[in-house]
């Protein structure tokens, strides 16, 4: 396990001590690029958010059938993010008092193009919608991935490099 993975694991376990209200986390496996694991990212995050944000599970149950959920798994990542995360959060009857943190570890493992797509989807949503979410996204040092993190759209949201 690399240094970043150990830090992420520690944040997940004791994030509350750091003022991080960690609601969901996802770690890409070493084989993520070959098994299309990226399609599990947003549904997994949505599942964890549903169990950590009051009212969100009920929102899912009232608006999405299991069949709808299965069909969404085969749609674009952008559609998955909107359907599984953005729309249900925006439909919550009460506003969340504190931003929830989502950790995505090892984004580089899903491949450059998919990593760029995921980062762009998240960044665009944070700019357009008033989502009470903050993302901690980690990657091994890779020039192409670093180029994605250096995109102007990502710099507008926030970026720190360790």
SSE diagram, text form:
Elements: H1 3-14, E1 22-27, H2 41-50, H3 56-63, H4 66-72, H5 77-90, E2 100-105, H6 112-128, E3 133-137, H7 143-149, H8 152-157
Parallel strand pairs: 1-2, 2-3
Principal-axes geometry comes out as globular
Secondary structure tally: strands: 3
- Low-pLDDT residue spans: none
Helix/strand-derived category reads mainly alpha
- Sheet with most strands: 3 strands, parallel
* Helical percentage: 40-55%
What topology, given as strand order, has the largest sheet?
1-2-3
Number of helices: 8
Radius of gyration based on Cα positions: 15 Å
Beta-strand content estimate: 5-15%
Instruction: Provide mean pLDDT, rounded.
Output: 82
Run of helices and strands: HEHHHHEHEHH
The N- to C-terminal Cα distance equals 17 Å
Protein name: Nephrocystin 3-like N-terminal domain-containing protein
Domain Nephrocystin 3-like N-terminal: 3-139
Pfam families: NPHP3_N
InterPro entries: NPHP3-like_N
Give an overview of the whole structure.
Keywords: Repeat. This is Nephrocystin 3-like N-terminal domain-containing protein. It comes from Gymnopilus junonius (Spectacular rustgill mushroom). This protein has 162 residues and is mainly alpha-helical. The chain contains eight helices and three strands. The chain has helices at 3-14, 41-50, 56-63, 66-72, 77-90, 112-128, 143-149, 152-157, and strands spanning 22-27, 100-105, 133-137. Strands 1-2-3 form a three-stranded parallel β-sheet, with helices on both faces. α6 (112-128) links the parallel β2 and β3 (133-137). The chain is globular, with a radius of gyration of 15 Å.
